[in-house]
Amino acid sequence: MTDDSATPTVVSAGREIAANADRIFDLIADPTRQPSWDGNENLAEAPEGQRVRGVGEVFTMLLTQGTVRENHVVEFEEGRRIAWLPSEPGAQPPGHLWRWELEPLDEGRTRVTHTYDWSGLTDEKRLVRARATTAERLRASLDRLAEVAEAE
Asked: What is the pTM of this model?
């Protein structure tokens, strides 16, 4: 048995992106855009027309391994914050959360923070992958998001 007390259950990464918050938020809140900047290379595609507009919405995503995830939006402030709990279709979310927070610095620069919180994760099958989700992996998504947002 391993001691997991040293493994943080809330991991964050942040960086400045040279784009305005609305442009960046649109890339995050539109699931069809997420695979283009996913640093975990876990997202394959999402059906069109799922742009998130509020708490309580659920969007679906096809993963690269061929399974579908329902993502339950639990935090939402247009242009500033969005968070969701993924689950298998029709199931209760097992308790891990993905959050994006945007802080406009000026018209063309935004501070973006990406957080993975698995402190409430109840599905033991997911613990290995949760532990492997490091700040470096979150930073990879931020860096790809920056590339896409700054190119548009």
From this structure: 0.93
